[in-house]
Amino acid sequence: MGLFSRLGTLFRSNINELINKAEDPEKMLNQVLVDMKGQLVEAKKQVAVAIADEKRIKKQLDQERAKAADWEKKAMLAVKAGDDGLARAALARKADHDEIASTLEQQWEAQKESVEKLKEALRGLDHKIEEAKRKRNILVSRKKRAEAQRMINETLASINSKGSFDTFERMEDKITQLEAESEATAELGALPEASLESQFKALEAGSVDDELSALKHKMALQSAEAEKKALGAAAGDGEAKASAEADDEAEAGDEAEGEVEDDAAAAEIDAQLEELKRKLSAT
Question: Which residues, 6+ apart, have CB-to-CB distance to 36 below 8 Å?
Answer without folding.
Answer: 125, 128, 129, 132
